[in-house]
Design goal:
single chain; mainly alpha; 8 helices; 0% strand; globular
Length: 120
């Protein structure tokens, strides 16, 4: 089990280094079932209470894409891996519901200068 988690982590890190195309690949791998939808809904409710910095879901999940785990934790005091998993669901649902909005949001995330400063 540990080896599978380590492999998943390596794939995610490699895809994030590839920029917008790597992130798009990760989003396309997400199968949005009822369990993932419920997990996302729960996460969104809980992060409002738990996060050190209060922001909307789009900002939080965009930052999960932009930032490394340490920076994300220092700002929000939330687990980056958990937030990133939910971000993939969030953006996958956005892509399914309104591709143009999804495309605009992802482009703005990756065109933002801070995204270029992502730690590898």
């Amino acid at each position: 089990m540990f080896a599978a988690l380590l492999m998943e982590q390596e794939i995610i890190e490699e895809k994030l280094k590839q920029g917008i195309n790597g992130f798009e690949w990760l989003v396309l791998q997400v199968v949005v079932d009822q369990e993932r939808k419920e997990s996302l809904e729960t996460w969104e409710r809980l992060q409002i209470l738990a996060a050190k910095k209060k922001v909307n879901s789009l900002t939080l999940f965009s930052d999960a894409i932009r930032m490394d785990a340490e920076t994300f934790y220092n700002i929000y005091e939330l687990n980056w891996w958990m937030a990133f998993k939910e971000a993939l669901t969030y953006f996958s649902l956005m892509r399914l519901r309104n591709y143009n909005t999804y495309s605009d949001v992802i482009k703005s995330i990756y065109n933002d200068e801070s995204a270029l400063e992502r730690k590898g």
